Amino acid sequence: MHGVKISGIGRAVPELELSNDDIAKFIDTSDEWIASRTGIKSRHISTGETTTDLAAKAAQNALEDSGLNAHDIDLVIVATVTPDYTMPSTACSVAQRLGIKNATCFDMAAACSGFIYASEVAVSFIKQGNYENALIIGADVLSKGLDWEDRNTCVLFADGAGAVIYQRTNENKIVKILTASDGEGSDLITLPALSEPNRFNANQNTQKYVYMNGREVYKFATTAVPQNIQDVLVDTGYTPSDIDLFILHQANARIMDSVAKKLDVDNQKFFKNLQNYGNTSAATIPIALVDARAQLKKGDKLIFSGFGAGLTWGSMLVIWD
Ligand code: ACO
Known about the structure:
Order of helices and strands: EEHHEHEHEHEEEEEHEHHHEE
Largest sheet: 5 strands, mixed
CATH topology of the largest domain: Peroxisomal Thiolase, Chain A, domain 1
Distance between the termini: 19 Å
Strand order of the largest sheet: 1-7-6-4-5
Radius of gyration: 19 Å
Bound molecules: acetyl coenzyme *A
């Protein structure tokens, strides 16, 4: 078995910043409601930047950060639920933009857990010896799937991309990844795919936008996530207090505070940047990693943890190199 480490990270967000006050100008909400319930103050929303644009920009930044060349990359996975095209995959378009040739490229849909799921696949492939350098991107432009008159959802979600390059090494730095799902909760967060009626089938599906049962998702996240992190820690022989920084999916500050409490960890050890970005779905963890980098030291033990539609969830333990 080979070892794997993170060798480069990058992020990209659209230029437009939309504050809670900006949103309160067109729907019945307030900065006070949004900030106190979620921790979100502002987010970036596309005015034309596509999922591919953001994914390619984040990937280019990660490539430069790693010091690798495009021809070194032999696997590209884009975790997204908002691709610009169902075919070709976003991963193929990103490879074309960066000049990556002959890599295995595909997209993966695991919603807000997408980055962890894609990481598990890439890390397993590298450990088995099939690949050397994998470019993993979490990218979503959820603003195109939002009903901007639905205050239950449009204040929460936003657009962005984050990328990580996993590289084969002798010394393993990706200690453990554990993912899971529960399809019983598949109706709690939904966004329909293509649903045009055809000549033979008058499609009755009228849902167009993101739907979320916020209360049930909150209950799920505050139960499944601490258990999943505990499982990773037990499997690896660490305790919560051994971890230097927890980087969770940036959906809601209250979820992170609840997970910290359940693990009996100071919530200052839970990195938060959702105040500036909102919930960018598959992109939140790699974007947060870029923003957290200044406070990381070589050898730090990090937990990444994602959760979302499916229901899906997953956590990983990483040694920062
Ligand atoms: N502004 C003002 N009022 C609002 C808003 C808003 N933006 N949104 C909802 N309300 C109102 C509701 O209409 C409701 O009013 P009513 O009582 O008159 O009917 C009231 O606020 C309470 O609504 P709830 O939905 O019960 O509010 P709650 O306290 O549960 O907070 C929230 C909602 C923030 C969404 C919470 O349920 C939550 O955080 N859930 C987790 C969701 C999450 O994190 N999802 C992302 C993870 S999954 C993924 O990333 C895909």
